[in-house]
Amino acid sequence: MQFFSLFDLLSYTAKEKDITVEEMFSFFHSKKIKKASILELQQTSYIPDDVVFREAICEFLDMNDLEINIAMGHIPQKFRKSYFDNVKKIASILSSEVQTSDFNLPCFFETDLGRLYNGDCLDVMRSLPKECVDLIFADPPFNLGKTYDPGINDNASMSQYLSWTFEWLDECTRILKPGGQIYIYNLPKWCIYIASHLQETLTFWDWIAVDMKYSLPIQSRLYPAHYALVSFVKGTRAHTFNNQRIPLQTCRHCGGEIKDYGGYKAKMNPLGVNVSDVWTDIYPVRHKSSKNRKYNELSVKLLNRIISMSSNEGDTIFDPFGGSGTTYAVAQLLNRKWIGCELGDCEIIRNRLQHLSRDKEQLNKAQEEAKYLFPPKVEELRKQNGFWICSDFSKTSEDFENERMVLNINANSNK
After folding, report:
1. In this structure, what are the phi and psi dihedrals at residue 175, rounded to the nearest 5 degrees?
2. CA-to-CA distance for 165 and 190, rounded, in angstroms?
3. Does residue 280 share a domain with residue 398?
4. By residue range, what is the domain housing residue 381?
5. Is 361 found in the same domain as 291?
6. Are 372 and 270 in contact (CB under 8 A)?
7. Distance in angstroms between the alpha carbons of the first and the last residue of the chain
8. Distance of CA 138 to the CA centre of its chain
9. Distance CA 389, CA 260 (A)
10. Is residue 242 domain-resident?
11. Residues 6+ apart with CB under 8 A from 377
């Protein structure tokens, strides 16, 4: 296991020495270091600068400063030349047999386009051939201590969580085709580490902020109002990018635009504005009538945008954390092949894929909303309140209407 927090390294050493955690706290208490100071190290990679604290840590671990840094994966700048000069020697020490798998998990459920496995995503990925999927979307547990189905650990230490995360990320990288994209949906706190790890082998594409204003305020912190959706490409550029458009943001009461486009009104595309890297139109699935399970669930609209933007019909989508099955449902409706796995209850996913009418309705709604700068109801409200509408600028209205007809044809072909 790689150590990402000093607390995890201390706990691991205590276990190796057959010392209880309370005895570890007693040791530091004898050095006049409070228990709270040790506990503060649980969710950070910070190594204290205080001389007394640092000396106590070195004594307990029986390590010097350099050894502690190396144990936590840090190579101080002044030692990096020596490190790189000895890469071959270090590699020979660390080398081991390449892990292979003859694991053969039976398919839990299959459609004309996809396969669902009820098991650990690492087992499933290790059984897949190299470079076999075009797009990966992953929404892993956030390690917030929530209760999920048996076998799912959402309360790991920082080092356990990140070591596990890096393990499945490496497998995702292996099975991703050149030019394929991977999207990881998580808390910004974890996406910092995820992005740092992925940039070692992939090319950064974008960091998307998905606006979600329903978290509780945290004392002494800014109010959390977004999730991170970080994306990387295998190779130098993505093989697919289908531009996505959304309606202009308007006031729901008067229909006036939130952002003033001034003299650019005549140049606005009646099919909508380009999607940016801040998504404010994705809403949490809260109501029981819209949910397929009691736990958190991602919206059809979110997965429709990702899959439509970064894949084409016939491409293969992989999601290692099935959850309620939103990725598979949208992939199925958009005529994409898919591979999925879920460690928990797969019956929920199977039932959903056998009854896709509600998902089809939500998908059609999302696609319909994405074909207008001002949806019909908003346009009517703007007329009533004297705001400009697209028909006020008639230069290419016929061309835009033809484009909209093409969008309608494409949408109907997916039904």
Report:
1. -85, -10
2. 9
3. no
4. 376-413
5. yes
6. yes
7. 47
8. 5
9. 14
10. yes
11. none
